[in-house]
Amino acid sequence: MSAPGGGADAAAPAPPPATAPAPAPAPAGVPLTVDEDLVRAVDFTKGDGLVSAIVQDTIDGTVLTVAYMDEEALRRTLATGRSWFYSRSRGEYWQKGDTSGDRQYVREVRIDCDGDALVVRVDQHGRGACHTGERTCFYRTIGTGPGVPAPTGP
Amino acid sequence: MSAPGGGADAAAPAPPPATAPAPAPAPAGVPLTVDEDLVRAVDFTKGDGLVSAIVQDTIDGTVLTVAYMDEEALRRTLATGRSWFYSRSRGEYWQKGDTSGDRQYVREVRIDCDGDALVVRVDQHGRGACHTGERTCFYRTIGTGPGVPAPTGP
After folding, report:
1. Angle at A85 (CA atoms; ends A22, B115), nearest 5 degrees
2. In 3-state terms, what secondary structure has residue B74?
3. Which helix (H) or strand (E) holds B79?
4. Angle at the Cα of A73 from the Cα atoms of A67 and A76, rounded to 5 degrees
5. Which of A144, A152, B4, B154 is at a distance of 20 to 30 A from A124, taking alpha carbons?
């Protein structure tokens, strides 16, 4: 659409460039309701203070990524409702999405039978969990087959 | 139905006790079609020869368990179509279900962006993946919350 009062070839001064609207601020996370007995059941001793945290999409169950938590990262995750990890290579805590905007809001944290791994079910915001821009870090397939469906019913 | 030639109260000798039918032999796994370039992309160096293998149910996406594979366990998994792992504590290979009967038939193996973790999607037979008898090792919930659903649309 032409500017009011001027054709495409009018000699009027160009309008100021449109500025993009500021992005909406990120919503706050919602703290989780916590079973303290189970927090104490997490066994950080086997992994030199760390446990694996398998992050899973609540929408379709996709495994998005796997990272590490120590007790502080787990506490921050439960208290903030957003995923916190510990980077072994950088020796520091990081909250997913702080840099990329691809935040993870936590719905559930589960612990495995021997207490040394967690499943963290999240609402993934932004592009996805992977630094490559893919939704999941597991975007490449090494092998495929038909499997053997389990028998059903007696 | 009565036996031919004898009523229920006939004085014929008791039949031999019924023996339970032998369990059907476990079906063979189906070897996977493999992308060799991606097998070579698995980085076993960071984990002292091991990578995490996150085992996921093909039926509903449940994360069943997490275990470790070295290159030999991965090769056996791809070649046999059943999950093989390496036990750090016992220092040996094990094929899931050999003892319990709770076998895992593999449909897909995926690799993550930096090559140090796998997702193994399986048809879980028997009771489940956990030695406790639960279907998943992640049967306990540390924390729950509502999350923050991701915004939809443009």
Report:
1. 100
2. helix
3. helix B71-80
4. 130
5. A144
- Picking from B85, B114, B123, B148 by the largest number of A CB atoms within 10 A of its own CB, the best residue to mutate is B148
Measured CA to CA, the distance from residue B148 to residue A14 in angstroms comes to 42
Class of domain B37-124: alpha beta
Q: How far apart are CA B118 and CA A117, in angstroms?
A: 15
CA atoms of A139 and A30, how far apart (whole Å): 29
Q: pTM score, two decimals?
A: 0.85
Residue from A32, A35, A38, A33 nearest A51 by CA: A38
Q: Do B81 and A148 touch (CB under 8 A)?
A: yes
Contact list in B for residue A66 (CB cut-off 8 A) is 52, 54, 112, 117
Tell me how far apart the alpha carbons of residues B83 and B62 are, in angstroms, rounded to a whole number: 16
Per-residue pLDDT tens digits of chain B, which is 154 residues long: 333 433 444 455 556 556 666 666 889 999 999 999 999 999 999 999 999 999 999 999 999 999 999 999 999 999 999 999 999 889 999 999 988 889 999 999 999 999 999 999 999 999 999 999 999 999 999 999 999 999 886 6
Write out the two tokens for A66.
């796997």
Amino acid of residue B58 = T
CA distance B22 to chain A (A): 15
Tell me the two tokens of residue B4: 């031919």
Can you give the residue ranges of every domain in chain B? Answer: 37-124
B 57-86 near A (Cβ less than 8 A): 58, 60-63, 65-66, 78, 81
Q: Answer left, alpha or beta for residue B72, where phi above 0 means left and psi between -120 and 50 means alpha.
A: alpha
